[in-house]
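Query structure, 195 tokens:
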């Protein structure tokens, strides 16, 4: 299914197979009937291999672990970079840019998860009926990881909480991107369910 059409095709494999059976009965030419039969065989094979309607709908502990690993992989180079400290100090002096940076982080995560079309990710059981769980968890994991690692590695001493928080926000932005990629790219069977 291509998301560029702007709508979901809700046809199930069973309905598709029934339509192909009907088509097979109505065609007169033996060559056309053979092609329809070959298409039915292909649909049957794909549905049993789980290649059709593979949609990410769950957010499991495995997904959280993948988001954490993605955060670490992208974040470690940032943790040792002195520019992070300088950028954080700049953001502390200009709160408007801090808000813009946080909005950018949220936008990038949502874009990677739902817009970039790496995988089809459906919103399942959102918080308060509107807030998708996946980005909340990815952002939360990235923020906790950035705060913990910056503290653990002595990059922030929390003697200037506002400045230190802004410095953490810089690493958080990178980790949020890594976390969202780490979550959806592996695409393991455990968090993919046929609809």
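Result returned for the query:
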């Amino acid at each position: 299914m291509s998301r560029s059409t702007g709508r979901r095709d809700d046809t199930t494999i069973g309905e598709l197979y029934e339509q192909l059976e009907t088509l097979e009965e109505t065609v007169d030419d033996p060559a056309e009937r053979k092609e329809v039969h070959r298409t039915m065989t292909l649909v049957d094979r794909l549905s049993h291999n789980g290649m059709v309607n593979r949609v990410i709908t769950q957010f499991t502990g495995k997904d959280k672990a993948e988001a954490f690993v993605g955060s670490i992989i992208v974040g470690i180079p940032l943790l040792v970079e002195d520019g992070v400290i300088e950028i954080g100090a700049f953001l502390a002096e200009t709160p408007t840019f801090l808000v813009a940076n946080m909005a950018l982080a949220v936008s990038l995560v949502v874009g990677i998860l739902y817009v970039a079309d790496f995988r089809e990710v459906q919103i399942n059981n959102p918080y308060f009926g509107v807030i998708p769980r996946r980005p909340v968890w990815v952002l939360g994991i990235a923020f906790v990881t950035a705060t913990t690692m910056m503290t653990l590695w002595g990059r922030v001493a929390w003697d200037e909480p506002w400045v230190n928080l802004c410095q953490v926000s810089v690493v958080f932005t990178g980790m949020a991107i890594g976390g969202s990629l780490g979550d959806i790219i592996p695409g393991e069977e455990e968090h993919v369910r046929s609809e």
